[in-house]
Amino acid sequence: MIAPKSHRIKVSNLVLVLLDRERLRNLEKQYKAQYEHDIDMFDKQYERYLTLCKNMKKEIKEKKEFICVDNILYEIEKLEKLQLNQLKQHYIKSQIDAVMKDLQYQFIQSRKKDRGINKLYQMDEKCGININLFNQNMIMEVVTIGENINMVRKQEQFYKIYSVIIKELRKRGVILF
Fold first, then answer.
1. Which CATH class is domain 88-171?
2. Taking Cα atoms as reference points, which of 131, 136, 106, 129 lies closest to residue 118?
3. Which of 7, 16, 108, 117 has its CA 20 to 30 A from that of 83?
């Protein structure tokens, strides 16, 4: 018995339909694999972000606040730059402390300022060396501790050791302007 014309399917059309279904299954598998990869990448980068925030004691944004991996990577880049800057500043401060200790200047105090840090070292009972660090720059000055003294003589003493301090810092990789 022959099927009516409306129910007849050409063999070539049937093959195309089957091929399209197979292509759709393959595309679905590819999209699913890509989706799983993207989710995995998102999760790994978020974990990296969390670690940086915790190490640096920074406020943590929730996962849902990030639209895509690029947003997380941007935050990670900012945190890594900040972390690098903090490490540089710590190294510079520690090397200044070491040089001043080698030159037998006693550390008196350190204060954090808006733009940097201020360190005071004692030259003698009436005079000190004040060091201001900010944005990879350093200013050193002789200051009085307590009552007024002859600052010109103390400044002359300081200028004799200034070049020694700079040379010692350079030997340690600290070059400030």
1. alpha beta
2. 131
3. 108
Give the full edge-to-edge strand order of the sheet including 106-112.
Answer: 106-112, 117-124, 127-134, 137-144
The phi, psi pair for 2, rounded to 5°, reads -105, 135
Residue 62 makes CB contacts below 8 A (sequence gap 6+) with: none
Comparing C-alpha atoms, which of 50, 80, 55 is closest to residue 65?
A: 50
5-51 pLDDT per residue, tens: 555 555 555 555 566 777 878 888 999 999 999 999 999 999 999 99
Q: What is the mean pLDDT of the chain?
A: 83
Give me the long-range contacts of 82-88 (CB less than 8 A, separation at least 24): 82/56, 83/52, 83/55, 83/56, 86/56, 88/136
Residue 143 token pair: 């200051």
Residue with tokens 């600290």: 174
